[in-house]
Amino acid sequence: MENLIKRAARDIAESKYAVALTGAGISTESGIPDFRGPKGIWTTNREAEAKAYERYELFLRDPRAYWEEIVGSQGVYGKFREQIRRAQPNPGHRALAELETLGILKCVITQNIDALHKKAGNKKVLEYHGSVNAVRCVSCGSRFAWEEVSLDRIPPRCKCNGLLKDDVVHFKEPIPSDVMEESEKEALKCDLMLICGTSAVVYPFANLPRLARFRSRRLFAGLDMMAPRSNVRIIEVNAEPTPLTHEGISDYLIQGKTGEVLPRIVEEIRKGISL
Predict the structure, then answer these.
(1) Would you call 129 a catalytic residue per the annotation?
(2) Annotated active-site residue in 93, 129, 170, 246
(3) CATH tag for 1-31+87-131+174-275 (out of 3.40.50.1220, 3.40.50.10490, 3.90.550.10, 3.40.640.10)
(4) Stated pTM of the model
């Protein structure tokens, strides 16, 4: 592993535009449970899983009932949200924030809804699946902190009179177009992608490493060819191999906990800077 950590440090330090993709694996080390692991929320509570699949449809059908469930603190969802809000960044989050401070990491794109990257100090964070700290207008796309929203009237409405919903992206709900478009631009722009703590099986998020690896080249109208980008490095830091590993999308895998591996990479980068 030591050689891979040094290799990653060298690759990251030499990159011109590095981005990071993160998933649940980086947040479980902050005490936030995952959903489908052996002790995951849905593994141990099938009713909670069923409700999660129905939540967006509930919003479309009955926004008032949706908001009454969201603001209720007694249900599994309410308790989970409070647990997330109390969580603090771990060494993996802080390592990514330090890479940004060093001017190396340009953006974090995360599946996580916990806002821990922002708490750790990262400035440019694209929250692909939304945030527990915000609500979003489904009409104009504006986002507001929870503290800015009055719940005197349920369902609450935006200044444009559009309905507000929890910013968290639920099952069957489209990824907000602004976040999706900016994430794709970052994936195409990067010359290094650091993938941390994601199983890379949830789409469309899992398309981003493939977008970084391959660039669509238009041959003529109606026919595209995917051309591999040899000038892009894709590094995985994951507890287990993923489809990206098996398909050769990533250049190499450093197998271990993000909270242990990422600080070691940053330490190696700092050694190189101080030489």
Answers:
(1) yes
(2) 129
(3) 3.40.50.1220
(4) 0.89
